[in-house]
Each structure stands twice: as C-alpha cells, then as structure tokens.
C-alpha cells in the first residue's frame, strides 16, 4: 500500500478574492472589514477613515452594503465568542 501525503496551506486555501469597492480611493472589501473589526461603528466614520464614497459617489450603495455585511459578520463573530464564554462558564460550574 502506498501512502500519499498532501500538505494544504489553510492560511490561503479558502481566502476569497478581494473586491475593490471604491475605485477613486482604492478601497477594498477587506479594507472595510478590517475597519469594522477595529471598531468602526458607522458608515460616516468609515468615510472619514478610508475616504470611501467621498469622490464620485458611484460606489456609495456597494460601500454601504459591504459595510453592513462586515458589521453583521462582526456581530455574529462576537456572539460566537460570547457563546463560547457561556459554554466554558457552564462547564466549569
Ligand atoms: S468609486 Fe468611490 S467615490 Fe468614486
């Protein structure tokens, strides 16, 4: 019997492609997600930080949707972390 060993680099294997949201200021969906993870709480604050949707304005709807999606994903992640904390607390009681 022959053994075949396959090495998979998971750090890049499932990484989705980056989407440029704002061409005028070269802002990507990953830039927006990063800002949300770092605590950006409003679209206006995002505009102040990245200047997204502050030039021609054609990206405003997409930028708002990307921001909303990132906020939702961030909230779900926070709920998951909270759930894990509750589970650990219950396990140690
Ligand atoms: S593409 Fe975003 S302001 Fe023009």
Please explain how this structure is put together.
By secondary structure, this protein is mainly alpha-helical. It has a single domain (16-92), classed as Orthogonal Bundle (Arc Repressor Mutant, subunit A), CATH 1.10.10. The protein is built from four helices and two strands, in the order H-E-E-H-H-H. It has helices spanning 10-13, 29-37, 43-50, 60-92; strands spanning 20-22, 27-28. The protein has a two-stranded antiparallel ribbon with strand order 1-2. Helix 2 crosses helix 4. The longest helix has 33 residues, at 60-92. The chain is elongated and about 65 Å long. The model is unreliable at 83-93 (pLDDT under 50). Bound molecules: FE2/S2 (inorganic) cluster. FE2/S2 (inorganic) cluster (FES) binds at residues 22-24, 53-59. FE2/S2 (inorganic) cluster binds next to loops.
Helix content: 55-70%
CATH topology: Arc Repressor Mutant, subunit A
Mean pLDDT: 84
Main structural class: mainly alpha
Gap between N and C termini, in Å? 49 Å
What CATH first level would be assigned? Answer: Mainly Alpha
State the total count of DSSP E strands.
2
**Largest beta-sheet details:** 2 strands, antiparallel
Enumerate the strands of the largest sheet in spatial order, edge to edge or round the barrel.
1-2
